[in-house]
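From the pipeline queue, job 12 of 40. The input is one protein chain; the requested action is below.

Action: predict structure.
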Amino acid sequence: MECDWRSAAELGIRIRPELTVRIEISVPTPEVGFPATKELLARKEPFTALFAYTIFRDWGDLALREAGLRVPQDVSVVGFDDIPGAAFANPGLTTVRQPLLRMARSRLRRWLIRSRARGVRAGDRHRARIRRTRFHGECAIGEAVGESGS
């Protein structure tokens, strides 16, 4: 989460801790979105948007509807890590798609370079270091996002 906060700060976006729910799980399941959204609603801090990993989104929507809020009229919902099932969400999900194939190829390339470097003397290992790679996602706009305050 620290990386997310730094990235937001670089873009001039302030993340309010009282509107953030940290989910500590080892295996992501959709059911996690319901209690996390309920926790956020229980804080009684008004918000107009919910940004969540796509897998948590539908259960978060359920918690919003249970609280009498409508998507997107009252709260916009944006997912991250587009998954195939997102195409069937109602209302249609707005999500950030990652270039997963390019990312996988890059990771494999880095792994191959590192595995070859294992045979290199320790003093020469610095030549085999890999720089971080930045990938740019694509925002797919769906109906789950409304105008702020609408």
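Job complete. Helices lie at 2-10, 33-42, 54-66, 100-117.
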